[in-house]
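no rush on this but wanted to send it before i forget. theres a chain ive been looking at and ive put its sequence and its fold in token form underneath. i want to understand how the tokens follow from the sequence so walk me through it. thanks a lot i owe you, the record is right below:
>
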Amino acid sequence: MKKMNMLKMALYGAAMIGLMTSGEALAEGKKLVLDGSTTVGPLAKAFASYYTKTTGVEVTVSESGSGNGAKSLINKTCDIADMSRAMKENELEAAKSQGVNPVQNVVALDGLAIIVHPSNRVKGLTKEQVRDIYTGKVTNWSQVGGPKAPIVVIQRESNSGTQDSFKELIMGEEKVSEKAETQASNGAIKSRVASTPNAVGFVGLAFVNRSIKALAVNGVKPEVRTVKDGTYPVHRKLFMYTNGQPTGDVKKFIDLPKTPAGKRMITEIGFVNNY
């Protein structure tokens, strides 16, 4: 009888340990951490708010830039890395060395809008003209059909995915002038251009509003339709990277763009549905 009681106690203890372990794992699964792109940030925050309200899972979103998002995933300090560009080869190698397998998930499409102050009479530029402005070859708006005024050139910081996209889609092998002013986010560029009549900058499509004017590039305006059909020449994909194929809450979160609610949020924010 004593042996039986001891056996029951042992089994009960094992069961409790199992429950505690399971409970701890469940508790850990009740929080998602996202870090990265300021472009993807508004979408990530909208998804986070919706996901928390509908599932009870806490979701935190940091906007430290695409490069830092990649570092966070590599260092295993985030569940999802928001990125406005694809991961670079050196980032993939660093991930591999840390036992991390980055999986690319496209969440939306975006147009990189070239923006000016609403008072600027210039309505459009060619890709070559934008490139010439950013290299410093063109320094006055009068050279591209605008007022006689020096151009204030605004760019993003080197860790920005938007900056990388701009270099890839516009600059090619050319370098941005050292005289270009640097801002830390899409919002900062928008604010600077909105308050500076002679400025030019670039932001994600979702950041375009009446405080600034988005220019046509090669005769095509940055709009949902032109980004969707690829006719706007400065378009790109937006990503959420995971460590391995997503499962559980991470998968449910990543799959939001495929749902009616997710598609609605993408449209309302100003990005373009990919599904």
About this structure: The two ends are 65 Å apart (CA to CA).
